Amino acid sequence: MASSLLPPRPVSPLVPTRAVSLSLNTLEKKFTGSLPINKIRSSIRCKRLQIRAVGAAPVVSSNLEADDFRHPLDKQNTLLFRAIPGLDELGKALIGPVSEQIMLLQNIGTSIQVSENQLTDLHQLLQEAAKILNTEAPDLYVRQNPVPNAYTLAINGKKPFIVVHTSLVELLSKKELQAVLAHELGHLKCDHGVWLTFANILTLGAYSLPGLGFIASFLEEQMYRWLRAAELTCDRAALLVVQDPKVVISVLMKLAGGAPSLADQLNVDAFLEQARTYDKVSSSPIGWYIRNAQNRQLSHPLPVFRAREIDEWSRSSEYKSLLSQAIRKEM
């Protein structure tokens, strides 16, 4: 399950409170003679409060549930999958312990496992994101791969894991990486891993049986529709963790056409304007048909569509309510 998660400059991690290193006495000596001391003190205290607010850790309610942020399309399509009888048993029977063992050994043998003693910054980002989303942190692996990507696997009740490619680590800032990890955690929080596996099994199994090509085609279309909806949910999970829509949109923009050498030239507002242009162009009858044909076989919504969706949700009463409830509980 691939996770394709700015202001005019690259997004950087939140400024920590300790960035304020000058004392009041030091600044008083520096400015004595040019401003009254009481005004200097008042100004410095104000600045300190502002920086503390910027560096404050994101908060989300400790009883956050998946349906609190699940996208409506995800809810609708998940219900359709759950209505298929015997799906759970079918998936477990077809995957089996051998496939699980192969996947586990492949990760251990070809990747670096993140832990308290290995790639500690990534470990901390994952733990923080899992705490905010009120879910257990899975295992995390970093794999050498030139294609920027991240994905999650959860099978048959085993401990799930996330894999992040090295090229993605190079492409994103720490805060953007945390958005990606939160996106993948969103898949686990919403049990997407199980349903993704089942959807793939249904489609592949139907295609392999004579005379069921039409059913396979129908199942595949339903599967892709659900996959796209699931990605929108997980973008919301990313926003709940980083609590800055520009960070999430920055990830989408960089995955669409970013590079480390271009990072200081990327503009998230221009990317959002590009998304609005796409909406206008595809609003005509012909544009609507082309857009649907373009999206039908995609496992992920178009980056511009995801950017527009997360921008709109960041200004919604639903999102603001989740944050305000969490803040009240923290108080």
Description:
With 331 residues, the protein is mainly α. The protein contains 14 helices and 4 strands. Helices cover 63% and strands 5% of the residues. Helix 3 packs across helix 9, helix 7 crosses helix 10 and helix 10 packs antiparallel against helix 13. The chain has a 4-stranded mixed sheet, with helices on both faces. Its cofactor is Zn(2+). Keywords: Hydrolase, Metal-binding, Metalloprotease, Protease, Zinc.
What is the secondary structure topology, with strand pairs?
Layout: H1 24-31, H2 37-55, H3 72-82, H4 87-110, E1 112-113, H5 120-132, E2 139-143, E3 150-153, E4 161-165, H6 166-171, H7 174-189, H8 192-208, H9 213-242, H10 245-257, H11 268-281, H12 285-295, H13 303-314, H14 317-330
Parallel strand pairs: 2-4
Antiparallel strand pairs: 1-2, 3-4
Helix pairs in contact: 1-2, 3-9, 4-8, 5-7, 7-9, 7-10, 8-9, 9-13, 10-13, 11-13
Domain Peptidase M48: 120-313
Cofactor: Zn(2+)
InterPro entries: Peptidase_M48 (IPR001915)
